[in-house]
Amino acid sequence: MEQNFPTAEQLAASLRAGEVTSAELTDEAIARMERGDDAINAICVPDFDRARAAARDADRARARGEDRPLLGIPVTVKESYDIAGLPTTWGMPAHRDYLPAEDAVQVSRLKAAGAVVLGKTNVPVGLQDVQTFNEIYGTTNNPWDHRRTSGGSSGGSAAALASGFGALSIGSDLAGSLRTPAHFCGIYAHKPTLGLVASRGMVPPPGPALPVEHDLAVAGPMARSARDLTLLLDVMAGPDPLTLGAAYHLTLPPARHERLRDFRVLVLDEHPLLPTGSAVRAGVGRVADALAAGGARVERDSPLLPDPAEAAVLYTKFLFSGSVAHFPVEAYEQLQARAAGLGADDQSLDAARLRGMVLSHRDWIAVNGSRELHRHGWRRFFAEFDAVVCPITPTPAFPHDHDPDLMARRIDIDGAAYPYFDQLVWAGLATMPGLPATAVPAGRSPEGLPVGVQLIGPMFEDRTPLRLAELLEREIGGFQAPK
C-alpha cells in the first residue's frame, strides 16, 4: 500500500493546474478499492458507473471555466445517508431492499460542490455500536490491524480514508461516531456544533426524510488533513433550506487565533469515572508537549471546567433515553421496575443508563435544565480558554467483539476490564452540551496502532479547534497511511 495519499486540497490544486483529470482520479480511486477493499470491507455500496459519469461531467465543467470547492474530487458517503437509487439500510436486514427516492441534503451539497461520489461506507446495525459490522455487509476491519475494529458508527468512512479510498467522507456523531473511528484509524474528523449542519435524509429507513432537529446527533466531515476538514465543513454547514434556512444565513466567526503561541489550552488525560490507558495518555502528552513548545499557554486543571463526572451521567441519560422508544410495553415495564429498585445514592454509569431508558418527559426536562447549567459553565470556561485537549476513548482500537449482549461486553484498559459503554464518557464531554470537537492524530501506540485526541472548542466557534488542529498537524505530523 502507498505510504501516503494526496489530500483533497492537493487534488484540487492538481485539477486546477490541468495536471490530472477527475476521470483519472476516479479511475485510480476505484482501482485502489478493487485492489484493497476485500481485506478492509469499507465500501459496502459501490456506485462506480455513476461516479465515472460524474467525473466526466466535472471535467467538462472545468473545461468551461467552472471552479467549485470539490469539483472533480472523489469522495465516499456513510451508508446512513440517503442517495437516490442506492440502498439505505443502516445495517438492518429488514430494510436491505429500501431505496430512497432522493438524496440527503448533505449528499446534495456534496454534488452541488462538484464532488464525485464513489459509493457508501459500512455502518453498525442501527448505527448503535463502537464497531462496524452487520448481517448485510459484514465486518469492516481496521486498516492498521485487521483483527481490530475500525470504530463506529462511521467506521467504514474512517477505514476508507485510511486506505486511500477517496479523499473525503461524510459521517455522523452521537456517541463519538466521527471521532472514535478517526482515532482508531489515524485520520481527522470534526464533530460540528449541534445544529450547525443540516441532517435531513440521514434517517433510519424507510424514512420519511424530514428536517428533524436532533438533540445530540450531528453530521460532519472526515478527511486526511485538518485543512480538508475545513474545506468540507464549509460545504456542509448551514441550516436546512426547508426550515431555518428560510430565514437565517450562516456566518461562522473566524478562529480566535492564527498562531500556536496565542492559544490558551486545558489538557486533560484522566476522567473521574474511567481510567485512561497508557497509550492514549502518551498521545495526549505528545500534543501537550507540542503546544508548550509552540508557546501556547497550557494548563492541566481549572476550577472553571464543568464537572466531568456529572457531565458523563447527564450524557448517559440523554443517550439512552432515546434507545427504548420502540420497545414492547412488557420490556419497557421491566426496565421501569429495575430502575425503581436503584438506590438513590447509586450515581454509577450503569444506573444512569437504566434511568435514562425510562426517563419520563418530566424527568427529561429536569435533566435538560442541568445541561443548560453545564452550557453556561462552558461559556465561562471559554472566556479564559480557547480549547480543551483530551482523549476520545481510553484505548486505541480494540479487537473485534461481536457478543450480541452489548451490556456484557468489556473493554481492556491496561489489563483491567471495564463496561463496554463506559468508554463513551470522553465523547459525551463535547456531545452533551453540543460543543464542536476535532479529532486529530497524535502518534502511535507501542503496538503501532493510531492514537488520536480531540480538541473541544466553544459553541459555534468551530474554526477555532479546526485551526488548532491545522497548527498541530505542522508540529507533530498528521495522517500516515498503513504499511
Structure description:
The protein is an alpha+beta fold and 483 residues long. Among the domains are: 8-257, Amidase signature (AS) enzymes (Alpha-Beta Complex); 308-373, no CATH class. The chain is 36% helix and 16% strand. The protein has 14 helices and 17 strands. The protein has helices at 8-16, 22-40, 48-63, 105-112, 155-162, 179-185, 226-236, 278-293, 308-321, 329-340, 349-357, 361-384, 425-431, 463-476; strands at residues 43-46, 74-78, 116-121, 133-134, 138-139, 141-142, 145-149, 168-173, 188-191, 218-223, 264-267, 297-299, 387-390, 410-413, 416-419, 437-444, 450-456. It has an 11-stranded mixed sheet, with helices on both faces. A two-stranded antiparallel ribbon has the order 4-5. Helix 2 (22-40) runs antiparallel to helix 3 (48-63), helix 9 (308-321) packs across helix 12 (361-384) and helix 10 packs across helix 11 (349-357). The longest helix has 24 residues, at 361-384. GO terms for molecular function: amidase activity. It comes from Streptomyces cyaneogriseus subsp. noncyanogenus. This is Amidase. Keywords: Hydrolase. It is an enzyme of class 3 (hydrolase).
